[in-house]
Each structure stands twice: as C-alpha cells, then as structure tokens.
Amino acid sequence: MGEFWPEYLAEHRNPVNRALHVTGTVLATGLLVGGVVLWDWRLLAAAPVAGYGFAWVGHFVVERNRPKTFEAPFKSLAGDFRMAGLALCGRLGREMERHGVADSGPHPDPPPLSGRGDKSSSPRPAGGGWEGG
C-alpha cells in the first residue's frame, strides 16, 4: 500500500466517518459469508450496497470529501479492511498518529438532520474519536 495508506488515513480523519466505514465493512463481510454459506444471491448482492452505502455516507455527508474508491478501488477496499481491523483491535489511533494524521473530530458544521434547518435538534458528539483505541 506504500504511499496510499497515509493518504487513505487522511481522507478518514473524522471519527464518525471511520465508524461508518467499520460498520459497513463488517456488515458487508457478514453478508458475503452468509451469502456463500446459505447460497443466497440476495445476501451476496446486498454486500457491496451495504459496504459502500455506509462508507459513502461517511464521505459525502460527514467528511465531505471524495471516496478513494473512485481513484483506486482495490487499494481502497484493502484500506477499508485494514482500517476496520486496526479499529477493532484498538490500534487505529496509534496508526494515525504514526502517519501524522490528526483526528478532525466531528465536522464543524454538520448538515441538519431535520428539514427545518434547525441544527440544535442534532446533538454533536464531544471531541475524541471512534477509532477503537
């Protein structure tokens, strides 16, 4: 992964984005395994929808950047699995520090969750991050 990995981490500074990626990666993996074990094409078809769905919400809504999937799909997929593994083992925070990638915390101006444009109805998490460590 060489130079790609630090760039990948830099596109995932927001802890909510990382949490969405880990959720999507774990869910997609479960759907793939279930689809193979149960020989159910619907589970297999749902796997990429679930995986990319969570990740792209993380990029377009939370982080407000372009997913690396469009530039390097296979490296991006490997990055998703690497990030999920590190997060689940509690080592992602140290990995980000090692590569000089700062946690951005929640986006400073998240989009409103209600149609009224009332930002007070969507509580913002206090600093820190979801990186499993």
Walk me through the topology.
Elements: H1 4-10, H2 15-38, H3 41-63, H4 73-88, H5 92-98
Helix pairs in contact: 1-4, 2-3, 2-4
How would you sum up this structure, described in words?
58% of the residues lie in helices and 0% in strands. α2 runs antiparallel to α3 and α2 packs across α4. The chain has five helices and no strands.
- Uncertain stretches of 5 or more adjacent residues: 117-133
Overall pLDDT score: 85
Q: How many helical stretches?
A: 5
* Structural class assignment: mainly alpha
Report the portion of residues in β strands: under 5%
Q: How many strands in all?
A: 0
Dominant shape: globular
- Binned, the helix content reads 55-70%
Following the backbone from N to C, one meets helices and strands in this order, namely HHHHH
Q: In angstroms, what is the radius of gyration? A: 16 Å
Condensed summary:
The chain has 5 helices and no strands.
Key descriptive features of the protein:
mainly alpha; 5 helices
